[in-house]
Amino acid sequence: MQLFLDTASIDEVRAAAKYGVISGVTTNPSLLAKEGGVSYKQRIIEIADVIDGPISAECVTRTADDLVAEARVLASWHPNVVVKIPIDEQGLEAIYRCTREGIRINTTLIFSPNQALLAALAGASFLSPFVGRIDDISGDGMELIQQCVQIVETHNLGARVLAASLRHPLHVAQAAMAGAHIATIPG
Ligand code: G3P
User: Fold this and answer.
1) Which atom of ligand 1 is nearest to the CA of 165?
2) In the chain, where does DSSP find H-type helix?
3) What is the band of 170 on the pLDDT scale with cuts at 50, 70, 90?
4) Long-range contacts of 34-40 (CB under 8 A, 24+ apart)
5) Which terminus of the chain is less hemmed in, N or C, by CB atoms within 10 Å?
6) How far apart are the first and last CA of the chain?
7) How many CA atoms lie within 13 A of 171 on its CB side?
8) Best substitution site from 3, 5, 6 to test ligand 1's pocket, by max atoms within 8 Å of Cβ?
9) CB-based contacts of 112: which residues, under 8 Å, 6+ apart?
10) Rounded CA gap, 118 and 111, in Å?
11) Rounded distance, CA 146 to CA 68, Å?
12) Which atom belonging to ligand 1 lies closest to the Cα atom of 184?
């Protein structure tokens, strides 16, 4: 399992990078909003200068047409950008259209095995089940990680399961034991 950092803080990225255990970074607009007005593009480029791996940047639009247009802009910022698109009906269409253009997609806000299956079939490179938020509503977030890994590996779908919304160190160990390909660690 690889470790990514879930942050938009360049200080946190630099601090973690020195150990050599971080392979990528995931960001979102909420994380960026904590960064005091730096532009999303500038921060992504700064992060990409430190970590040579996938850097997720998230769309905020909601229709398929808007998501595709936004994804093109985000993907143009740096070759390592992976575009985060939430999995709903519009998002699924956008994922398919983007992947046909060669834009790599991290499907975010996955709450069920079928959402993961659909995103993988549409061509997403990364599937992000939200472990902590499922736990928040008395579900078993780690069970979803196991289910997604099983689906991807049984059917050789090529997508990688990225355990997201992790809240504590036990989640990280459990994700590794469940076969997650990546865990993204809050800063
Ligand atoms: O990786 C997704 C993450 O940023 C959301 O975490 O703790 O708000 O559910 P959380």
Assistant:
1) 6
2) 10-17, 29-33, 40-50, 64-76, 89-100, 113-122, 131-136, 141-154, 169-178
3) very high
4) 34/8, 34/9, 35/8, 35/9
5) C
6) 18
7) 25
8) 6
9) 144
10) 12
11) 30
12) 1
Residue with token string 């599937």:
127
* C-beta 26 within 6 A of ligand 1: yes
What spacing in Å lies between the alpha carbon of 167 and ligand 1's midpoint?
8
Per-residue pLDDT of 18-77, as tens digits, reads: 999 999 999 999 999 999 999 999 999 999 999 999 999 999 999 999 999 999 999 999
The closest-lying atom of ligand 1 relative to the alpha carbon of residue 28 is 4
Which run of H or E residues covers position 156? Answer: none
Q: Tokens 């060669």 — which residue? A: 102
Q: Could you give the CA distance from residue 35 to residue 187 in angstroms, rounded to a whole number?
A: 13
Q: Give, using CA atoms, the residue closest to atom 3 of ligand 1.
A: 165
